[in-house]
Amino acid sequence: MDPQRTSWVTFLMVMLFGMGSWVAINGLWSELFVLIPYTHEQYKLTAYLTVIIQIANVGPIAYTVAEKLAGEERRLGCQSVGVASIVSIGTLACILLSQLWHKCSVIAGTEHSTALIALSFFLALVDCTSSVVFLPFLAAFPATYLSALYIGEGLSGLIPSALALIQFRSQVGTCGHNTSYTPAVGCNSTGVVHGVHFQPNIYFGSLAAITIACGIAFAFLRRRVGSYTPIPDADAAPTADDSEPLKTDTDGTEYMELSGQDEKVNVLSMDCLKKRQQDWNLPVPMLIGLAWLCALANGVLPAISSYAYFPYGQLAFLLTTVAGILSAPAASFLYYFLPSKSKPLVSCLIGVATCIAAYVVFLASYCDRPLECRSSGTAVIVILAIVFSSCTSYSKVAISTIAHHSAQARGLRWCGIVTQIGSFLGAVVTFALTENDVFCS
Fold first, then answer.
1. Which of 217, 254, 203 is nearest to 28 (CA)?
2. Which residues contact 28 (CB under 8 A, 6 or more apart)?
3. Number of C-beta neighbours around residue 80 at 10 A
4. What are the pLDDT digits (tens) for 364-410?
5. Nearest to 305 by CA among 294, 325, 320, 326
6. pTM of the model as a whole
7. If residue 248 lies in a helix (H) or strand (E), which one and from where to where?
8. Cβ atoms within 10 Å of 328's Cβ, excluding its own
9. Which are the contacts of 162, defined by CB distance < 8 A and separation ≥ 6?
10. Cα–Cα distance measured from residue 128 to residue 25, given in angstroms and rounded to the nearest whole number
11. Backbone dihedral region of 440: left (phi > 0), alpha (psi from -120 to 50 degrees) or beta?
């Protein structure tokens, strides 16, 4: 077989490899409809998990530093160690979570689900780190396999959501903000829950099996790395070796002689001028909008989702969670067919997302149910979740495209920076509000 042609076995392995990227965290969020009534944090659990996920971003930072220290010649080895660590820690955390999720301990006189919270940190740690490990590893393969990786990442949200929908059987508790769930399990309980077709230990065991499949796929792909010849990027800018050679002036300054011209161009001055021009071209209002969207989507709304949606029943909470997980990649995929760099359009989408977020905050704060507990109320909050997630995801891709068009790599770097800043601030502020009982439980 021509090594540059697509191998469907390799394509499938890359899909399995990609499934391990965010399957643990997506699975954990999909299972919250079961966990919340049986944990001591109850409605506050989502706020705890939101902050934990943001703290877990130390993983990508640590890996990036380690990769820089390892050097270019050890990059593949560093990636192999990174993937092996992700698979091992993720699998072990899922297995332990299946047995210990209901265990608690007393901290400062208050019982907490310490096992669930601690293991959730390790799940978030490996999933966040996978973002900076998986994609660079595939650079050794033809670009046709990138689509398989993103398909796998999409399945990492679809499969846990499908398992959670199958798991649901009947409601636990009644509808309404004034419902106070009494924890059904204690520190020494077996962790048996009601109203489900199978227990959480089987669910988390399934996530562990998916993570193991990711590790097997990586072992296969690791053996295939040498089978492919890296394809040069046709759009890459020519380097100094590809164009005119650099020369050194009498004072030691490097310059380049342009063909047909007599003037010398100082390379350092050109680089500084280009960076300064990129700084001026940064779409600052769009970056502020991106930070605001990330604060809402990754911080505020996930933290208060239990307050806003759970009073309408476990099914309503499950459907809104699944809708948010699935509509985000769908909206990003839609941008591929309907791209737009229109700043007014992005501003309108940010406005719509902000209005929906404000209404969700109102639902979380208002102790009397504004919506009916029947199917109509469930339909409204599910539609709100879909529209919010779609507007947010489409806007993120559009803003990233605008930033790349305006300032190239520097613009994308700033997109990453404001994404983390916005998400972290949103999570921390909302966590502080929940700890002060601002929202109605």
1. 203
2. 49, 120, 123
3. 16
4. 888 766 666 666 788 899 999 999 999 999 998 888 888 878 776 67
5. 320
6. 0.76
7. strand 246-248
8. 21
9. none
10. 9
11. beta
